[in-house]
Amino acid sequence: MASSLSKTLNAQKKPSFSKNPIFLIPIFLFNFTRKMTKSSSDQIFPLVQQLQQFTLSQLASITILRTLGYGLLVLTLFDIVDIFIPPNFMNSAWEFQTLGKLVERVPVPLIGFALVFYGELHSRSKWEFPMLKFLSWLTLLFTVLFILLIPLGIVNTLRLNNQSVAQISNLSSKQISQAEQVEKQLSQATPEQINNFSKLQGRTLDGKNPQEVKSQLLSEVSQAKEKIKNQAEATQSFQGLNLVKTSVKWNLGALVSGALFFMIWKGTHWARTS
User: Dihedral of CA 134/136/140/142: which sign?
Assistant: First the structure.
């Protein structure tokens, strides 16, 4: 009887963990965390594999881009040789056209340098390190070259404009001089000479007074002189405007090109210190 009473009292003092919900919470959290960890691992592994594949594909793409960049720089070298050979320095027209050719073709080396320097020092061959250093300093040389071309382009623009004005003036002066000679001959011509001159021009007097024909011819010569002057002024204005437009375009292009090359040089300090 005493033994039964002792078992009953011990059963009442011992807590029941399976029936108390408070003690089930840690067990639930443990199981939940284990399941989440396993689920997260299952999701992370494919992501890591995809990231590795993407990195490998990027490395292959970088190699292609850099190869393309080296190819564009080689083509630029061919263009430079073609532009400067044969040289004709001190010739304003040649120097001005050379400025234009360099500016018009500058996108090719700019893109080439950008592709070659892409990715900095990652995944480089040994021979590329001195090459990158050389190319970095070469961009500074191009910067100086294009900046120096600007004042040269302005000076050549003025020279070409003066030459154009002189050529047009000389041509119009010769034409006006010829017209004045004809005018002088007509002024001193006799009626018989006026008749012969009219026949040479494919005209006939048709009973007109030679003096009237003479006056008419002198008026036509005067109109021709005025027409020559107007054409000379129009040609001079047209050529001068085209020259200024081209000069502004090429000189601004040289300025922008120099600034871009300087930015590339400044941004590739890692290549010069490697």
Answer: positive
Q: How far is CA 147 from the centre of its chain?
A: 15
Which of 256, 249, 253, 250 lies closest to 100 in space, CA to CA?
A: 250
Q: Which two tokens stand for residue 197?
A: 């001159």
Q: Is residue 59 part of a domain?
A: yes
Number of domains in the chain: 1
**Domain span at 240:** 40-272
- Which of 195, 98, 190 shows the shortest CA–CA distance to 149? 98
Lookup: tokens for 44:
């992370």
- From the list 265, 251, 244, the residue with the least C-alpha distance to 146 is 251
Q: Does the model's pTM come out above 0.85?
A: no
DSSP state of 31: H
Written as six digits, the tokens of 236 are: 């001079």
Rounded CA-CA distance 257/269 in Å is: 19
Taking 70 as the threshold, does the pLDDT of residue 144 lie above it? yes
Q: Tell me: pLDDT of 41 over 90.
A: no
